Amino acid sequence: MKAIPLKISSQVQKAIDSGKAVLALESTVITHGLPYPQNIEYLNDIEALAEEQGVIPATICVLNGECCIGLEPQDIEILKGKMQKGDELHKLTLRDLGLALAQKQSGGTTVSATMALAEMAGIKVFVTGGIGGVHRGWQESRDISLDIKALAQIPVIVVCAGCKAILDIGATLEALETEGVPVYAWQTDEFPSFYSRKSGHIVSQIDSAKAIVQAFKIMQDFDKVHSGMLIACPIPTQAEIPFEEIEPYIQQAIKAASNISGKALTPYLLDHLAKSTEGRSVKANLALLENNLKLGALIAKEMT
Ligand code: PSU
Ligand code: MN
User: Fold this and answer.
1) Cα–Cα distances in angstroms (integers) from residue 238 to residues 174, 221, 241, 242, 251, in the given order
2) Whose CA is nearest to atom 6 of ligand 1?
3) Of the residues 47, 91, 119, 164, which is catalytic?
4) Cα 15 to Cα 239: distance, rounded to the nearest angstrom
5) Is 164 annotated in the active site?
6) 263 C-alpha to center of ligand 2: Å?
7) Domain 6-244+280-303 falls in which CATH fold?
8) Nearest CA among 203, 297, 192 for reference residue 240
9) pLDDT tens for each residue of 60-115
10) Domain edges within the chain
């Protein structure tokens, strides 16, 4: 078996070599989660914010068939160029990586693919907006994100603001339990629901980066356990869209998406919400990403 070649940016490589804290960042949020040009602004802002918080950002994506762990300035230009030209940027889950590398594709990596690549690079902490999970109506569609399986099998800590609000949150939490994924809410006992701080679902509370890292390290000492860990960090109060307010928009979006399935579904729903809420959902998304990054930085620093 040959190892998959990783294109680790010089900054990230230097940080790894010197034992500095590195934080992996997801890229499907850039290619498929946020509208253009906010997505490129986000990429620049979030990398700067990471450095402010004392960690080296490693945005992970695939560019022309290469697995990038951290982006060089020219990589950001390539990504930007592809977005401007409307070149195809794929949404790459873990199962898509083989063909993507073989065919020199480019794309954003989802939580499952980013976790796998981060782990291969030795990065243990990863920040995203919301994980994929069990979709509403799963009894019929069987739509359950590969993210759940990745969390069960790849030992990386994932910081998110809950699962995407468009999902069946209760069923997602049950699936995470079945797969043995530890799930903690940050300084609260309620699992947040992405745009809102509340979901009505109670999970275990965790209050410090130290406790997170300790629990994670002990889990790794179990021979038969290789799971990741999910830390759900509620969106800041001032950026929140209360559940009762966003829910009608979500239902509208789901209704409009009745003939869309597979991996096109999430981007469709997010785009629909961005339009129907006149950009409010995008603003909330950006705020929660920054907030997650700050927590991810604390954990990554604790890890070193
Ligand atoms: N949450 C968002 N925006 C996104 C995603 C999640 O707010 O773009 C992406 C993540 O990359 C996640 C993926 O891993 O959607 C899950 O997609 P699916 O439901 O098709 O598995
Ligand atoms: Mn799916």
Assistant:
1) 30, 40, 9, 11, 24
2) 130
3) 164
4) 33
5) yes
6) 5
7) Indigoidine synthase fold (3.40.1790)
8) 192
9) 999 999 999 999 999 999 999 998 887 889 999 999 999 999 999 999 999 999 99
10) 6-244+280-303
